Amino acid sequence: MDSQSQWVGSIEFEASTPQSACEHIVTISQQGRGAHVHLANAYTVALADRSADYRGVLAAPAINYPDGKPIGWVSELRGHSPRLNQVRGPQLFLDVFDQGRAHGLRHFLLGSTPEVLSALELELARRFPGVKIVGVESPPFRKLSAAELQDQDSRIRETAAQIVWVGLGTPKQDVEAQRIASALPVVAIAIGAAFDFAAGTLRSAPAWMTNVGLEWVYRLICEPRRLWKRYVFGNVRFLKAAFSTPKV
């Protein structure tokens, strides 16, 4: 893919369209090499601003797509050419499942709960007949030992998966996507809440809120206890980082 990139905060983003992002993932998934992809938003930029380790996870050769309207607004204010446009994780998730069918792509779902994964697997099979989901796994909600991670990698390898979708929450999922891509010849994609949205266990924001960049407000209303610190403090940190010299 011929692409260009732009910096927002300390993250280098791919300047892409939703369709070209989907095509790129489908293409590299057939190449048999490790790669890690991240759907990064304002919260991601804020976290990267304060953590050198996290910046390292998202540094090249990571592929970062701007999953959030504020990234595009900053890009426009800074006069980027090409301007960064939003690539929404939940839609990219569905698009790759859809368009990957023509190539027989093999998918592995890692994260969330067994209940969500069961509902998700059924929904993806209903929406996209012929899709190949070769494995699902809900890891414990704790740090895994080195031996447990090796066992997990072995299970993924045995399925011959080409894409591993990682839904473990930010920033844990980004770290895990990088680790998996370094251990296995797969494309590991940190995909956020896409599992819940596609499974129907979490409602998406109304289209008008998404279109004007207020999806975060809807999510805050739905999950105030879990998300209020992220948005109250994270948005301030994002603005500071977005208009500062990138940290590398």
TrEMBL record:
Pfam family of the protein (one): Glyco_tran_WecG
CDD domains: Glyco_transf_WecG_TagA
The keyword Transferase appears for this protein: yes
Record keyword Transferase present: yes
UniProt keyword list: Glycosyltransferase, Transferase
InterPro entries (alphabetical): WecG_TagA_CpsF
PANTHER family documented for this protein: PTHR34136, UDP-N-ACETYL-D-MANNOSAMINURONIC ACID TRANSFERASE
Entry protein name: Glycosyltransferase
